[in-house]
Design brief:
The chain contains 13 helices and 10 strands. Helix 5 (101-109) links the parallel strand 5 and strand 6. The longest helix is centred in the middle third of the chain and has 16 residues, at 166-181. It has a single domain (2-193, 234-303), classed as pyruvate-formate lyase- activating enzyme, CATH 3.80.30.20. It has 328 residues and is α/β, with parallel strands linked by helices. The structure holds iron/sulfur cluster. Iron/sulfur cluster binds next to loops.
Amino acid sequence: MHRMWSDGRWNELTMAHGCYWGKCTFCDISLDYIKVYEPVDAKLIVDRMEELILKTRQNGFHFVDEAAPPALMREVALEVLRRQISVSWWTNIRFEKSFTGDLCILLKASGCIAVSGGLEVAFDRLLKLIDKGVSAEQVAHVTRNFTEAGILVHAYLMYGYPTQTVQETVDSLEMVRQLFEAGVLQSGFWHQFAMTAHSPVGIYPEKFGVVKEAEAIGTFANNDINYIDKTGIDHDKFSFVLKKSLYNFMHGICFEYKLQDWFDFKIPKVTVPSDYIEKALRKETKFAINPTAKVVWLGGKPDTESFTKHISYADNILKKRKVTPYKN
Ligand code: SF4
């Protein structure tokens, strides 16, 4: 995913202004660029794509949305397929359950090659505290759907969230290890939590067990706040190991290492069952169709053949009498 960000050239567009979720407690949700959600019509998005292809001669698109809405992604995919244009595109999403296996296949058919999304702390207590609206199990299902459709998945990972314990950091690393081992994640990056002035944590620090050391300077790019986490944990000491282990997992190696082997200081034992993700992936997902669902045929033009079947007079009489003809 880092090569996708840095190499080559992409036409940049957005599907929507702002974020349709707008709830995560570490995010600048009080600012317009997140708070004001204004989706663009799918037809207009594809018009813009066609214009940009003509102008730049490039058919690769990076939708730089905060979190592209699944329903709009579906509409854009259908419009791309309807117009039969050949494009590659990728974007940022939330790992929510509307990304079913079917939707991921449709997105892939329209040229979607990669998605990135916030898994953050990969631990359910903290995901609730963040108000991320997803669970680790749900993320496993969604990332599997993307992976099976052939779409690369990158996860933003976070450590040092207010009140996060050492145990939770270790368990979160274990979740990430299992997701890579199951092959449903291909790329990731650990970010250390930063408290920003316009996030709920920055506005109401007392609710999240942190104390501000000083106010931010207040301008858009200078909005980080120094704070003291009441747990007193030095989260910096995990940085190197989290990144080093992730680097190896991304290369498909070292899954068999005990987590303690990565650290040069003592860590608590993992409390996550070693088959947590495997079991989650084995669970059947409910297949429900809503009455307004459409069937989309992604194959080529089917061959059709018409024929007339004649039934003999004798067969017809037997059929009416419900008699099965004797055959030996
Ligand atoms: S972190 Fe992402 S999903 Fe959450 S509110 Fe911010 S932009 Fe939306």
